[in-house]
Amino acid sequence: MPFATKKLNIEKAKNSLKQPVVLVACGSFSPVTYLHLRMFELAKDRIEDSKRFELIGGYFSPVSDSYMKNGLALHTHRIKMCELAVEDSDWIMVDEWEGTHAEYVRTVKVLDYFQDCVNQWVERESIGRNVRVILLAGGDLVESFGIPGLWADADLEKIMGIYGCLIVERTGVDLKGFLLEHDIAYKNRQHIHNDISSTKIRLFIKRGLSIKYLLPEEVIRYIYDHNLYTE
């Protein structure tokens, strides 16, 4: 599938005096929830208030099936649910490159891929300037950066130092201690007061409880039509 560019804002990329940026959220998204969508919107608000960056687009990048996480639906289902969730967004897209890999793809390699693809678009459209890719991460992902042996130091240095990481802190995840101990090149936190996670939603489905107003209606229909998360 070709790299999606139809929602990238070419006018902002060409005309803004600020650095054009694209947000990339990596994760399982099993299923994608309103919380994930709110992460993008909160990040958008923060960037639009900044004097440094101009947001021109965003992407969901679901992990591959080899991630082997409990409750992980097949990548085809997760990609489709993300696509349904962003149908009415004028700036968020879904990319399936990471999800279709047979093996797990390290986050830094995913960002490398997006950097290459976005700047190929820059050349085709004669933008005349590079677009920066920034990782959009929840606090739980960022906390994992501090777990010994889980992330390669070189990967973290590139993610934080070259790309940058915009952190959206979820309720129940305290990053204060972590951030005091780690040198994060670009940090911008915003709290989301919502603790409804994908894990809880899978449990609701398994127990036959309502998930209305927790996910986009199109995603709910897709889950029930394909009998997902019932076992």
Overview of the structural elements:
The protein is built from nine helices and six strands, in the order αβαβαβαβααβαβαα. It is an alpha/beta fold and 231 residues long. α3 links the parallel β2 (53-62) and β3. The protein has helices spanning 10-15, 34-49, 75-85, 107-124, 139-144, 153-163, 176-181, 198-206, 217-225, and strands at 19-27, 53-62, 92-94, 132-138, 165-170, 190-192. Strands 3-2-1-4-5-6 form a six-stranded parallel beta sheet. The longest helix is centred in the middle third of the chain and has 18 residues, at 107-124. The chain has one domain: Rossmann fold. Helices cover 40% and strands 16% of the residues.
Order of helices and strands: HEHEHEHEHHEHEHH
CATH-level-2 architecture = 3-Layer(aba) Sandwich
List the uncertain runs.
184-193
By DSSP (H or I, 4+ residues per run), the number of helices equals 9
Overall pLDDT, averaged? 87
Structurally, the number of domains stands at 1
CATH superfamily: HUPs
Q: Which structural class do the helices and strands define?
A: alpha/beta
Helix content: 25-40%
Give, in spatial order, the strands making up the sheet with the most strands: 3-2-1-4-5-6
- Please give the number of β-strands: 6
Strand content: 15-25%
Radius of gyration: 17 Å
CATH class: Alpha Beta
For the record, give the distance between the C-alpha atoms at the N and C termini, rounded to a whole number.
Answer: 31 Å
Largest sheet: 6 strands, parallel
The CATH topology is what? Rossmann fold
Shape: globular
Keywords:
single chain, 231 residues, alpha/beta, Rossmann fold, six-stranded parallel beta sheet, 9 helices, 6 strands, 16% strand, ATP-binding, EC 2.7.7.18, Cyt_trans-like, Euk_NMN_adenylyltrnsfrase, nicotinamide-nucleotide adenylyltransferase activity
